[in-house]
């Protein structure tokens, strides 16, 4: 995209330059040449802006079933307390990696009934 916009800007600037060189005292040619040079600069700038990658933010919302209460989360293997940094969500599943014992497992929600 950026290369195409630069090529178009060069073509428009070339035509504007031709109008400025062929000025010969005619104000209309001078105005058209300046406008074309400004348009070429704008096209090149917009092409540059379009090529800048945009930051994307992904937010995942989890709908919990039933009543939820806050409790300390502990490792299944060694019963060490887990922090939020040790919990990761991959493909919609919750995974835990314990720093103390090195255990890695998927957390499964047990039915409430």
Helix content: 25-40%
State Rg: 31 Å
Determine the N-to-C terminus distance: 57 Å
Number of distinct beta strands: 3
- Could you give a short account of the major beta sheet? 3 strands, antiparallel
Q: So what's the overall shape?
A: rod-shaped
Question: What do the pLDDT scores average to?
Answer: 85
Can you write the helix and strand succession as a string?
A: HHEEE
Strand content: 5-15%
Structural class: alpha+beta
Number of helices: 2
Unreliably modeled segments: none
Strand order of the largest sheet: 1-2-3
Number of separate structural domains: 2
Brief overview, please?
The chain has 113 residues and is an alpha+beta fold. It has helices at 2-21, 27-50, and strands at residues 87-90, 93-97, 104-107. The protein has a three-stranded antiparallel β-sheet with strand order 1-2-3, with no helix packed on it.
Q: Can you give a write-up of this model?
A:
This protein is α+β, with helices and mostly antiparallel strands and 113 residues long. The protein folds into two domains: 2-50; 58-108, no CATH class. It has two helices and three strands, in the order ααβββ. A three-stranded antiparallel β-sheet has the order 1-2-3, with no helix packed on it. Strand 1 and strand 2 (93-97) form a beta hairpin. Helix 1 (2-21) packs antiparallel against helix 2 (27-50). The longest helix has 24 residues, at 27-50. The two termini are 57 Å apart. The model has no long low-confidence stretch (mean pLDDT 85).
């Amino acid at each position: 995209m950026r290369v195409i916009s630069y090529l178009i800007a060069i073509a428009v600037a070339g035509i504007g330059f031709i109008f400025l060189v062929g000025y010969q005292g005619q104000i209309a040619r001078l105005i058209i040449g300046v406008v074309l040079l400004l348009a070429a600069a704008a096209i090149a700038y917009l092409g540059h802006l379009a090529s800048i990658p945009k930051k994307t933010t992904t937010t995942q919302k989890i709908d919990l079933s039933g009543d939820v209460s806050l409790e300390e989360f502990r490792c299944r293997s060694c019963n060490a307390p887990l922090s939020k940094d040790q919990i990761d969500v991959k493909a919609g599943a919750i995974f835990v990696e314990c720093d103390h014992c090195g255990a890695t497992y998927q957390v499964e929600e047990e039915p409430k009934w």
